[in-house]
Amino acid sequence: MRTSARELLEQLLDTDSFVSWDRPPVTVAASPQYRDALRKAVVAAGTDESVLTGEGLLRGRRVAVIACEFGFLAGSIGVAAAERIVSAVELATELGLPLVASPTSGGTRMQEGTVAFVQMVKIAGAVAAHKSAGHPYVVYLRNPTMGGVFASWGSLGHITFAEPGALIGFLGPRVYKALYGRPFPEGVQTAENLYRRGVIDGVLTIPVFRRIAHRALSVFSGIELPDSAAVQLNSERIGPRPLGSVAPDHAQDSESVEAERLRLEDGRGRAADDRVWQSVLISRRPERPGIRELLRHVTQRVPLSGTGQGESDRTALLALGRFRGRPCVVFGHDRRGQQGENTMGPAALREARRSMALARELRLPLVLVIDTVGAALSKEAEERGLAPEIARCIADLVTLDTPTVSVLLGQGTGGGALALLPADRVLAATHAWLAPLPPEGASAIVFRDTDHAAELAATQRIGAADLLDDGVVDRIVPEFPDAADEPVDFARRMVAAIAHELATLRARPEPELLAARRARYRRLGLPGMTG
To answer: Cis ω on the peptide bond leading into residue 144 (within 30° of 0)?
Structure first.
């Protein structure tokens, strides 16, 4: 049994105190099959989108609330849901209200592809602004909370609690099995295990969370209460509880999966252009130049290592240097260090945050290079806080007050790529791509096999040309015809493009850059806001 959004609101807030802030969802481009899936979701869930927002009283205290509804297309977040969330966060900030968010979601809405995936940037940015304004942000994770939702606004709370027995993790178990041919270890992606590992603050039923949230908000407010107002937990306790039943995977519900399958298997799906899939294959060539080849054309290089706190990760590189005379901090994925399941882990993300801190403190531009098969999918990564580190990277980067350039050099898979994306300018190589999952993983969700990866690569608009059209990318740096066949010339071409962007950005005041960056990601995906 899952707790619906309305049940959450009824148990969390004072009786009859909830007031909705929701307006009709914004219109997004959709196939007839997707439109039909949305209509069915409205009937099935009893809500007009996968999230409800508003305000109410929590033990007499006025709070803003965001509650996901899993019954609406598995609680997945697309452009309309993200717009509703961000509008609510912004209004809570404007009104100076504490914000209580309760996600439950399979993650990014597969039917909307990459443009839905990048919505996590603007949600994280809005939450970061709310927190920077001094307002509390409290999170209660419900069963299940997965993928980009957990790796963005689900992991940014000042305090974070979860529902007993909740499935919480970065990647769905079914996708892991499809990619690696074996099941994900049991007992890792549970609220209780993440509490034991220090990833979240506790495991509570909603009535107990209501009391704890009230107590925390009283502390945050700085107002002292008499001893008699202290709340006793009695038989309830924070900490591990018996596991509840959880489904094996929650990335999409059956109706949305079937609608997408039918869409791809109609005549247009069968005739899908394989151009994007060819780029995916080209981006995976072992000979393709990576960040090391770019750094060979950077002068006065100073290689750095690790987080400065006893961690390092060979899947990433950090350095200081000059791009054609332009000084900067450089951080990016190292394709040479990514072997098999050895991909970007929590330490690499903490090293990325070190690069952002260096750029801020030294008042230097930051150049980020994206070239990853995805963040690490392992027991260790989940238990060491992979998803929260992705969320913190996104929030830090979108609010960084120095010029930033992001380079989509090759593969751009999942949260590991999104963590380095939200810059002032985004460059992409011709055969680079960005997607919430590798196409094979998306196929595993939609079709329960990996045979439809090429079709999904095209329909989800993950390729560089589509990203340019959708406003995710600002400029494509050409390959003639494949960077692997001209590594030196391509590297020089990309370094020149980066240097040009750095010079352009340096000519603009930093406050203006930061405002423009926030506005860019705030509008991304809305009608009429493409490139």
So the answer is: yes
